[in-house]
Amino acid sequence: MNEGLNVLASIDIAAQEDLYVLVDFLNRNLKDKEIIFGLSKSHEEGRYKITLYRTTE
């Protein structure tokens, strides 16, 4: 994947209308802790995958 990012955890969850708002909120408030959240569509329809990363700069 991206160099400098280590996956800490990931989870598949049901799609929610404002899920991206939560991920954006977490990223804005935890970036100084070297934590990044990713959001992508899951292989299953109607589900998303949230991945938690730690940066290694």
Written description of the protein model:
There is one protein chain. This protein is α+β, with helices and mostly antiparallel strands. It has one domain. It is 21% helix and 46% strand. It contains one helix and three strands; from the N terminus they run βαββ. The protein has one helix at 19-30; strands at residues 5-14, 35-41, 47-55. Strands 1-3-2 form a three-stranded antiparallel beta sheet. Strand 2 (35-41) and strand 3 form a beta hairpin. The chain is flat, with a radius of gyration of 12 Å.
| Fraction of residues in helix | 10-25%
Report the mean per-residue pLDDT as an integer: 91
Strand line-up across the major sheet: 1-3-2
What is the count of helical runs?
A: 1
Count of the separate structural domains = 1
Name the structural class: alpha+beta
- Bin the strand percentage: over 45%
**What is the number of beta strands?**
3
Distance between the termini: 15 Å
Gross morphology: flat
Main beta sheet strand tally, sense and closure: 3 strands, antiparallel
Give the uncertain stretches in residue-range form: none
Q: If you compute it from the alpha carbons, what radius of gyration comes out, rounded to the nearest whole angstrom?
A: 12 Å
Features:
57 residues, alpha+beta, three-stranded antiparallel β-sheet, 1 helix, flat
What is the element layout, followed by pairings?
Elements: E1 5-14, H1 19-30, E2 35-41, E3 47-55
Antiparallel strand pairs: 1-3, 2-3
